[in-house]
Specification:
This protein is α+β, with helices and mostly antiparallel strands. It has helices at residues 27-35, 37-47, 50-60, 69-75, 93-97, 144-148, 151-157, 202-205, 211-214, 282-289; strands spanning 10-13, 18-21, 114-116, 121-126, 134-135, 137-138, 161-167, 174-176, 181-183, 191-193, 217-223, 229-235, 243-245, 252-253, 258-262, 267-273, 278-280, 293-296, 301-305. The strands form four sheets. Strands 1, 2, 4, 7, 9, 10, 11, 12, 14, 16 and 18 form an eleven-stranded mixed beta sheet that branches. Strands 3-19-17 form a three-stranded antiparallel beta sheet. A three-stranded antiparallel beta sheet has the order 8-15-13, with no helix packed on it. The two termini are 33 Å apart.
Length: 307
């Protein structure tokens, strides 16, 4: 990805097989908040704090917010024929934001050897996290212990395979299981790791990758039959009203089952596999090696089980 903050955000679209420019919701505010001195001061004092996001989420829950729905659909060229319910039925913008889709709009790859993307978005994949020298800009690396907040897990996954899936406000905002497995093991549901709520847009991430281990997040250990433990994290962000988990902890999940959803705001999920358990898709690896995100939809191939 180009590190010049004046340039547009570019990603590679798996379906058109070409580089495209991202339509950024609130781009002017993001540039001000993360690229100007006054904006960065305001972000530290106000924007990163939970109260700001709760206030914005409250606005999106008001009935008056429904007037934003149709202009949003038109501006970002969404496809209402994919929606499970018609746009006119949503009472607030937030209801529209975490809308469900028709099952046929996001078919799940059924080949048992495949793992799938857990969400619509722009994805980066790293086959061996310990060898990654830069993410977004030179010198930025993942701090796995900071991300997981558990030293034993960090040691176990330090050579693991990581996929970062970044959701924009224009995306489908429900997230799903990338593999079949038990949700959180026998007893443990998602573990809350509290933190701030910075934006996860590349405008912010180019300056500071540590947003991922500073932001509020949830960590789930998915226990599988043939891939060991798969870690799954939902990362909160500015204006994310809340993360809602819809799948019961301790229960078995099929690949592609819904795990939960984000209320208003763009965010990210991270999937982390044990070393040697998965081979990522060729296009994901090829684009990530160039620092370019790959756009792909939930349910499509993310990789294949090894062995």
């Amino acid at each position: 990805m180009n590190t010049d903050c004046e340039h547009s955000i570019r990603y590679f679209n798996r379906y058109t097989n070409q580089l495209e420019t991202e339509s950024v919701y609130g781009q002017g505010f993001l540039k001000w908040a993360y690229e100007s001195v006054l904006g960065r001061m305001t972000t530290e004092l106000i924007v990163k704090r939970a109260l700001f996001s709760k206030w914005y989420g409250w606005r999106m829950d008001r009935e008056a917010s429904r007037t934003k729905i149709l202009p949003f659909i038109q501006q970002f060229e969404l496809q209402p024929n994919e929606f499970l319910e018609s746009p006119e039925t949503f009472k607030t913008f937030n209801e529209f934001f975490f809308r469900k889709l028709k099952p046929e709009a996001r078919p799940i790859q059924q080949d048992p050897g495949l793992v799938v993307f857990p969400a619509d978005g722009r994805h980066l994949g790293f086959a061996d996290l310990s060898t990654v020298q830069s993410v977004f800009v030179k010198g930025q690396r993942f701090d796995l212990q900071g991300l997981l907040q558990q030293a034993s897990l960090a040691r176990r996954f330090e050579r693991g395979t990581l996929v970062l899936s970044r959701l924009c406000p224009v995306d489908y905002h429900r997230f799903h299981f990338p593999v079949a497995g038990r949700n959180g093991g026998e007893k443990n549901g998602p573990r809350l790791i509290n933190g701030s709520l910075y934006s996860v847009n590349p405008i912010a991430l180019r300056r500071n990758l540590s947003i991922f281990w500073q932001n509020k997040r949830y960590l789930t250990e998915i226990e599988t039959e043939d891939m060991g433990t798969v870690l799954f994290l939902e990362i909160g962000a500015t204006c994310v009203g809340s993360v809602v988990h819809t799948h019961e902890a301790g229960k078995q999940a099929a690949k592609g089952d819904e795990k939960g959803y984000f209320r208003f705001g763009g965010s990210s999920v991270i999937t982390l596999f044990e070393p040697g358990s998965v081979r990522l898709a060729d296009d994901l690896l090829a684009q990530s090696e160039q620092g370019v995100e790959l756009y792909a939809k939930m349910g499509d191939e993310m990789g294949r089980k090894e062995g």
